[in-house]
Amino acid sequence: MLKFVTRLFALIGFLVVAVIVGSAILAAHMQKRAEAEPNKVILTLDFDRPIAEQNDTSPFDLALEQEPVVLFDILHAIDKAAEDPYVKGLVARFGTEQPSLIQAQEIRAALARFRKSGKFTYAYGTDFGEFGLGSRAYFLASAFENIWLQPVGTVSLTGVSLQSPFAKTALDKIGVVADFMQRKEYKSFMEMGERDSFSPPVKAEMQTMVDNLSDQIAGGIATSRKWDIGHVKDLMSRGPYTDEEALQEGLVTRLAYADEFDDEIDRKAGKDAKQVGVETYLGFTGGAEDTKNEKTVALIYGTGLILDKNPGGGDMISGHVMSAKEIAGAFDDAADDKDVKAILFRIDSPGGSPAASETIRRAMIHAEKKGKPVIVSMGDAAASGGYWCAMNGDKIIADPATLTGSIGVVAGKFASDGLLQKLGLSVDGVSTAENAGMWTVAAPFTPMQRARVNALLDNTYNSFVSDVAAARKIPMAKMPDIAEGRVWTGEQAVKIGLVDELGGYAVALAAVRKALKLDEKTIISIETFPLQPTPAERVLKLMRRFGAESAMLSSSLKALAGMQTALQPFLANVIGADSPVSARMLVGVRE
User: What pLDDT does 18 receive?
Assistant: First the structure.
């Protein structure tokens, strides 16, 4: 009884806090809406905030130090601002955070479209890399017409480096053996445990890849600053640069402090102009489109390690897992939804379970058979299992820097029998067959067990290769030069047939428009699948975890659940208004 009373009062306290937080959010939201939308707007991009593929945070994630901004939101805001007569220009602020290379590439493409409007663009950095690496930050900043740097700041424009730790010697010292098998020689995932350096073929592949990425950075900067690419490569070979050196080399257009930068923006746009962030700006304009002529497209995010299902553990873990159960369900729901005309599948995954990847691939094929075109857009990586999921897309689009391919497979274990002996530990057991305990870490594989692992690897690898060849219409004779675990950049992958076209969201949405034979006047309405839990559902989920043992509390929760429908419009207005992509977004991105 005491336990129940304690839980009940704790629940009441939680509800009080939730109401207070919700009221505060509502008050802030109402105040924002009550303010007149400014007649002069300066869209402000804060690149000192993390950039995420999708918004899976909750208003109740109070522990977050800094909520990420969604990449799709940034791109949509820039494209809208280009056509918005109230927007006078665009400014960006850089700090210690750095975007990924593909994020920088997609934002640069949006900036190029924005600059065609003739509106001003300014980038301000307290630093571009400081005493670290700043090539990605400067690569993005170079797309702005004006680049300002704070005095004493640096521009750490250097080459591209890729390093990996190797632990074979260390593992040998403690009595652990990395007992892994792979298909094939370029599948380097577990080399770090088996070797003390890259194998020659893998090292050669890595060098080719970083050379390509370096060329992409140099080429982008050269195009933006109207320099020769050879000059940019020379600058990269001599960096990093002090503030004065950066000014002399033309890497920045002015050295100034933040207050002086704000004075300049006031001068350009007028003191009555208001600087607004991405979410605020989309909140001002999110409902302005004519929705009579629109088509719904399902946006499915496939991000993180691919597993059969989410292992649990809360949002900290779930945000890094691509659950086959959830993604396949999203494809099935989108395929059955009569309002959904096409599916945009955004992948950012290093790979994972082959079986889970196959589950997702099958769900994609099933949706296509139901008449729903599937356009695949690749983010930072769509490697190994990530490419497995993508291979049957009606069209596959990748950014130039996307890491993809890695058509291979690896399996094994860390045999720790030597370590156990050093610690004075022993393992004993019984089994009905030799292979029943083959995955124990207390011993390496026996010859028979190794033969069975190799048989599984052969079957998985051969299926992977043959399915890619069939899906991408690549002759099997060419697959050995494409597969065997090789990793490709998007720019390389498009040349060998693994990718159809280079680009980001804008190119993917243009492909959707083409697949549906839509004219430029037709609005595309984006809906994320699976549908994200509402704030009410999040609260109820937490409460169920808290009080599932109490019959009285369970009854109360059922009553609260019944109120969700009535509460939803209120909660949507309170919490969802400044998160347009997580609920519904209207886009009309053009090439």
Answer: 52
Neighbours of 298 (CB within 10 A): 25
CA distance 27 to 271: 27
My answer on whether omega of the bond before 200 falls inside 30° of 0, hence cis, is: no
C-alpha 585/C-alpha 34 separation (Å) is 23
Phi, psi for residue 583 in degrees, rounded to 5 = -115, -65
Closest C-alpha to 45, from 202, 280, 370: 280
Determine contact, residues 454/179, Cβ cutoff 8 Å. Answer: no
- Tokens 């994630």 map to which residue? 61
pLDDT of residue 538: 54
The mean pLDDT value for 289-318 works out to 75
pLDDT value, residue 198: 87
Alpha-carbon span 454 to 465, nearest angstrom? 16
**Which pLDDT band, with edges at 50, 70 and 90, does 57 fall under?**
low
Those residues whose C-beta lies under 8 Å from the C-beta of residue 388, and which sit 6 or more positions away, are: 351, 354, 357, 358, 361, 464, 467
b/e map of 168-177 (b: 16 or more CB within 10 Å)? beebeeeebb
**Least reliable range by pLDDT among 50-59, 82-91, 163-172, 329-338:** 50-59
Distances (CA, A) of 300 to 212, 308, 456, 580: 30, 17, 31, 15
Q: Confirm if 44 and 280 have CB atoms less than 8 A apart.
A: no
Whether residue 474 is predicted with pLDDT greater than 60 in this model: the reply is yes
> Which CATH superfamily includes the segment(s) 293-382+497-531?
2-enoyl-CoA Hydratase; Chain A, domain 1 (3.90.226.10)
pTM: 0.82
CA pair distance 359, 352, nearest whole angstrom: 12
Please check whether the two domains, 36-158+239-285 and 293-382+497-531, share a CATH topology: yes
Q: How many CB atoms lie within 10 A of CB 531?
A: 12
- Count the residues in the chain: 591
Domain regions of the chain by residue span: 1-29+535-591, 36-158+239-285, 293-382+497-531
CATH T-level topology, domain 36-158+239-285: 2-enoyl-CoA Hydratase; Chain A, domain 1 (3.90.226)
